[in-house]
């Protein structure tokens, strides 16, 4: 089995290409501009500086590093708390639990200024939050799954869940 694994790994170590050599990424505004490049540059130019300025805007300051970690990390705790509270505000609904995929948080934040670009770097994809209702058995199962997977960013409010045959309290 080890030999097969070694062969599989070594076979994948070199990419074989039958086409032309891949081109390096082209950056608009670098090097000599063609007529088409100049047209694109003319469209983009008015937006470049305002966007740079907006992305450099300081949104808040952190007095400590916000780090990823399992079973929990300060960054995951912060982001799930923020998202839970924001969804409560936007939906006028009490949200008891918010949890995220640990891998969805892409960067850590340093102590100091947190800029708009850092927020975009943290969660660069158009993720969606889903609100679901769960009974005590489902919540218990979800929390056991999170624990079995070595943790996940999670935010809990004081929860009182009751069912006809069982009551769970999480604080």
Name the features.
about 170 residues; alpha+beta; 6 strands; disordered C terminus
Give a topology summary.
Elements: H1 2-11, H2 35-55, E1 58-62, H3 74-91, E2 97-99, E3 112-115, H4 116-122, H5 136-148, E4 154-156, E5 159-162, E6 167-170
Antiparallel strand pairs: 1-3, 2-4, 5-6
Short summary of the structure?
40% of the residues lie in helices and 13% in strands. With 171 residues, the protein is of the alpha+beta class.
Gyration radius (Cα, Å) is: 24 Å
Distance between the termini: 48 Å
Shape category: elongated
Strand order of the largest sheet: 1-3
* Integer average pLDDT: 79
Structural class: alpha+beta
Number of strands: 6
Low-confidence stretches: 1-17, 164-171
What is the H/E string? HHEHEEHHEEE
Reported for the largest beta sheet, the result is:
2 strands, antiparallel
Count of runs of 4 or more consecutive helical residues: 5
Strand content is 5-15%
Helix content: 40-55%
Outline the structure in words.
There is one protein chain. With 171 residues, this protein is of the alpha+beta class. Helices cover 40% and strands 13% of the residues. The chain has 5 helices and 6 strands. The chain has helices at residues 2-11, 35-55, 74-91, 116-122, 136-148, and strands at 58-62, 97-99, 112-115, 154-156, 159-162, 167-170. The protein has a two-stranded antiparallel ribbon with strand order 1-3. Strands 2-4 form a two-stranded antiparallel ribbon. It has a two-stranded antiparallel sheet with strand order 5-6.
């Amino acid at each position: 089995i080890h030999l097969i694994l070694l062969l599989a790994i070594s076979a994948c170590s070199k990419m074989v290409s039958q086409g032309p050599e891949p081109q390096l990424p082209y950056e608009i505004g670098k090097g000599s501009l063609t007529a088409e490049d100049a047209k694109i540059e003319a469209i983009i130019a008015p937006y470049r500086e305002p966007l740079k300025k907006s992305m450099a805007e300081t949104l808040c300051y952190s007095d400590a590093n916000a780090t990823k970690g399992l079973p929990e990390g300060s960054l995951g705790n912060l982001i799930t708390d923020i998202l839970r509270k924001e969804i409560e505000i936007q939906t006028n609904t009490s949200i008891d639990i918010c949890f995220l995929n640990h891998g969805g948080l892409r960067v850590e934040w340093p102590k100091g200024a947190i800029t708009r670009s850092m927020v975009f770097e943290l969660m660069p994809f158009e993720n969606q939050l889903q609100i679901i209702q769960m009974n005590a058995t489902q919540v218990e199962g979800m929390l056991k799954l999170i624990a079995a997977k070595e943790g996940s960013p999670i935010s809990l409010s004081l929860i009182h869940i009751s069912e006809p045959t069982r009551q769970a309290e999480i604080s």
